[in-house]
Amino acid sequence: MLDRFFLLPIGLSAAPLAWLAVVALGCYHGLNPGMGWLLAVSNGLQARRGQAVFAAFLPIGAGHFLAMAVALLPFAVLSAYFSRLHDVSIAAGLVLVAFGLLKLIRRRHPRFLARIRPHHIALWSALMATAHGAGLMLLPAFLALCSGSSAVHGSMLALLEQSAGAAFAVALVHTAAMLAVGSLIAWLVYRFWGLRVLHRSWFNLDLIWAAALLLSGSIALAS
Amino acid sequence: MAEQFRPDPTFYPSPRLAMEAPAERFAFTALLCPDGTKPDALAVVDVDPNSSSYGRVVHQVDMPYRGDEFHHFGWNACSSMLCPIGGHPFTERRYLIIPGIRSSRIYIVDTKPSPKDAKLVKVIEPEELMRRTGYSRPHTTHCGPEGIYISTLGGAGKDGTQGPPGIFLMDCESFEILGRWEIDRGPQRMSYDFWWNLPQDYMVSSEWGLPPQFENGLVPEDLLGNKYGHQLHFWDLRGRRHLQTIDLGANHQMALEVRPAHDPTREYGFLGVVVDTTNLEASIWTWWREGGKFHAKKTAIIPPEPADASLLPDLLKPFGAVPPLVTDIDLSMDDRYLYVSCWGTGELRQYDVRDPMKPELAGSVHIGGIARRTRHPNGQEFAGGPQMVEISRDGKRVYFTNSLYSTWDVQFYGRHLPGAQVKANVGENGGITLDPNYFVTFGDGLSAHQVRLEGGDCSTDSFCFPSV
Predict the structure, then answer these.
(1) Does residue A4 form part of some domain?
(2) Is the pLDDT of residue B385 over 60?
(3) Structural domain for A186, as ranges
(4) Whether residue A154 has pLDDT greater than 80
(5) Is A47 helix (H, G, I), strand (E, B) or coil?
(6) pLDDT in tens, B101-148
(7) A92 assigned to some structural domain
(8) Which of B85, B145, B147 lies closest to A39 in CB terms?
(9) A201 contacts in B (CB within 8 Å)?
(10) B21 touching chain A per CB within 8 A
(11) What SS3 class is residue B347?
(12) B219 and B213 in contact (C-beta within 8 Å)?
C-alpha cells in the first residue's frame, strides 16, 4: 500500500529538493515547543514515566498528520482537475501569502485553542498546526512533487489518486520527521536538560513563522 | 503590548523552579480609604534587605476616584503562561489588575519599567463590567489559559442581587472584558474565591455571601440563621460547566479562601471556613478528587478564646468569647506549610500539611487580636489582627496585613484599622517568628489589604509541570 503511494506515483528520486524541504519543515515543526514536545514533557513528568513522553506523540503525530493532509488534499484535488498546475501554484501562493500577512498583522494567538481539554491531544495537535498554517507551509514542496509526476497522463481518477497519494506521502514523511525531532527533544528535556531549558531555548518564533509562510508563498508564486 | 522574544523570566515551569528563582524585591499592597475621604491606592514596598529603603513605601499609585474599596488583586499573566495547551509564554507579568469591590471599578496598573514608577494605565468603569457580564463586586483575580479570570460577589441591580454572581474573563493584553465564564453554573448562587488544577482541568470555587450580607457590615441574623455561604463548587475548567457541589453543613458559615496544591499531580487543596455557628470554631477543610468525584473533610479546627465581655464589641458580648475568624489561608509553594490567619484572636498559624488529611500545628505568632491586643516585637501596636497573608516563593518570608473589610473592621475592632504590614520569618524546619525590624505603615486614614510580590507569589502562580 505504502509503496504504491510513495514510489509509483512520484518516485522518491523525482524531486529530491522538494522531499528535503518536506523533511526540513518537519524538523522545524518538531523543534517548535508549541507543536507538541512541550506537551509530551508535561505528560511524562505528570505520569513520572519516560514512556508517557513517547506515548503522547501518538496523538500528537495523528493530529499533525491530519492537519497536513487536510491542508494538502484540496490542492491535490485542484491539481488533478486543472491540468495547468501553474494556476494551482498561484492559488496556493496567494493563500500562503495571505495567511502569512494575517499572522504578521494579527499577532494574537487564537483563544479557542485554550478551550481544548488537556487530554484531547490529537485534537489539540491538529488544531494547533492548522491555526498556525503548518500544513500550508508544505504546499510549494507538494506542488513541486505533483508537477514532477504530471507527465504521467491518465484518466481523471488516476490523476486524482496520484495527487492524493502524493499528499498523503508528503504528510506522512513530514510528520515522521516532526515526530523524530520532537520526541528527541522531549526526551532530552525530560531525562537530561530539565525544565530550566525552557527559558534559555524557547524563542518567540511568531515572526519567523510568518516569514516562513510568506517565503513559501513566494516560492509557489514564482514557480 | 509588545511581545517578548523569550519567555518572561518570572514564568516558572514548576513550583520548585519558582522557589529557586531570585527573591522578591518589592511588595505591592492594596490600600483602601475606609471613610472615602481620599482615593484608594496601591503602595509599593521595598522588601530587599540590602536596600537603603528596606521596609518602607517607596512609591504609591493614587487612584482617580474615591470609595472603590480595594480588596484583592492580581497579575495579568503568571506561570500558567508556560502551559503546553493555552499557554502564551511571550506575554509579560507586568500589569496588576485591581478591582474595587465596592465600586465595581477595575484599575490596570503598569509595574514596568520599575515598580517604583508604577502607573495607572486603564480604568474599566462599573457600567462596562455590568454591560458585558451582568456581574458586580469583582474579587479574586487569576491568570489562566483563557486570559484573566475574575470572580465577583454580586449580580445586577443596585444591591447586586439580581441574578447570581460568577466569574468573568478579561483579555490579558488588551484588558477588554470578554464576558461571563460559566456556560452552565448548575446550582451555584453565591461566590467568593476560586482556583484550579490546570492539567487536571478542574476549578474549585467558594462562597462568602451576597452584597447585602457584607457591604454594610456583617448581618448577625443572617449569620445565626446560617444564611452565608457554606458550599464548595467544582467545575469543569475548559468545559466551563458546574460538576459538583459539596455542602459543608449550614453551620459552617463563610467558606472563603481556596488553596489547591501547587504541584499539579497533587489533586487536593484546602479551604478556610470563618466560623461554625454552633460553637464559634473556625475550621480548615481538605478537599480532594478520588474516583472521578470530589470530597471534602474538616481536617483542623481552631477553638474560640473566652474573653471578658468588656473587651468585646457588641456583636460578641453575648458570647463572652472571641471566635478565631479564619479569614485567609495560604499554602507555601512546596505544598508543605499552610498559613492560617486568625483575624479575631490575633494569631497567625503555620500548619505542616505534608499529610494533607492531617494538618499539624508547626508554628504560631500572636499579634493584635480583639481581646489579646498583642503588640509587635518592636513595641508598636498592631491594629486588627493577621489578615491577608502572602508567602514568598522560597517559603522563607510571610507578609501579612491587618484589615478585613471596612465595615467589618468597625464591627469587630470598633474603628477603621490603620494599615500595617508585618513579616514573619520561617525556620529551617518550620516555626515562625515575627521580624522585629519589619513594620510597614501607610498613609493616614488608609487601611491595608492584599499583598502581591514582585515575580509572583504563593497565591498567584499555577503550574502545568510538577516539581521533579
Answers:
(1) no
(2) yes
(3) 17-222
(4) no
(5) helix
(6) 999 999 999 999 999 999 999 999 999 999 999 999 999 999 998 999
(7) yes
(8) B85
(9) none
(10) no
(11) strand
(12) yes
Q: Provide the pLDDT for residue A3.
A: 40
Contacts A116 to B, Cβ<8 Å:
85-86, 238
Helix (H) or strand (E) holding B29: strand B26-32
- Sorted by sequence, the CB contacts under 8 Å of residue B287 that are 6+ apart come out as B204, B232, B246, B268, B269, B270, B271, B294, B295, B296, B297
Q: Is the pLDDT of residue B181 over 90?
A: yes
**Nearest to A31, CA basis, from A179, A213, A200:** A179
Question: How much is the mean pLDDT over chain B?
Answer: 96
- Residue A38, chain B, CB below 8 Å: the answer is yes
Rounded Cα gap, residues A89 and A147, in angstroms: 10
Instruction: Assess A41–B contact: CB distance below 8 Å, yes or no.
Output: yes
pLDDT of residue A210: 86
Q: Are B389 and B339 in contact (CB under 8 A)?
A: yes
Q: Which residue matches cell numbers 501518538?
A: A58
- The count of other CB atoms within 10 Å of the CB of residue B321 is 18
Question: By the 8 A CB rule, do B271 and B206 touch?
Answer: yes
Give just the sign of the alpha carbon dihedral A22, A28, A31, A35: negative
CATH number of B83-91+157-453: 2.130.10.10
Q: What pLDDT score does B98 carry?
A: 98
User: b/e map of B127-140 (b: 16 or more CB within 10 Å)?
Assistant: eebbebbbbbbbbb
Q: How large is the ipTM?
A: 0.86
Give dist(CA B376, CA B49) in Å, integer.
19
Query: Exposed, middle or buried by CB within 10 Å (0-12, 13-18, 19+), for A17?
Result: exposed
- How far is Cα B7 from Cα A161, in angstroms, rounded to an integer? 45
Decide: B193 and B206 in contact? Cβ < 8 Å.
yes
Do the Cβ atoms of B170 and B98 come closer than 8 Å?
Answer: no
Mutate which of A35, A41, A42 to disrupt the B interface (most B C-beta within 10 Å)? A42
For residues B9-18, average pLDDT? 96
The rounded percent of chain A whose pLDDT value lies above 70 is 87
A111 touches chain B (CB under 8 A): yes
Of B86, B90, B264, the CB nearest to A204: B90
CB-based contact A195 B17, cutoff 8 Å: yes
Q: Which pLDDT score, from 0 to 100, does residue B25 have?
A: 98
pLDDT digits (tens, 9 = 90+) for B317-351: 999 999 999 999 999 999 999 999 999 999 999 99
Say if the Cβ atoms of A111 and B147 lie within 8 Å. yes
Residue A56 inside a domain? The answer is yes
**Which B-chain residues 118-147 have CB contacts (< 8 A) with chain A?**
145-147
Mean pLDDT of chain A: 85
Q: Tell me how far apart the alpha carbons of residues B174 and B176 are, in angstroms, rounded to a whole number.
A: 5
| Domains in chain B: boundaries | 83-91+157-453
The pLDDT tens digits of the residues spanning B56-114 come to 999 999 999 999 999 999 999 999 999 998 788 889 999 999 999 999 999 999 999 99
Enter the pTM of the model.
0.94
State which amino acid sits at residue B239.
Answer: G
- Structural domain total, chain A: 1
Supply the pLDDT for residue A152: 52
Interface test mutation site (partner A, options B85, B88, B146, max chain A beta carbons within 10 A): B85
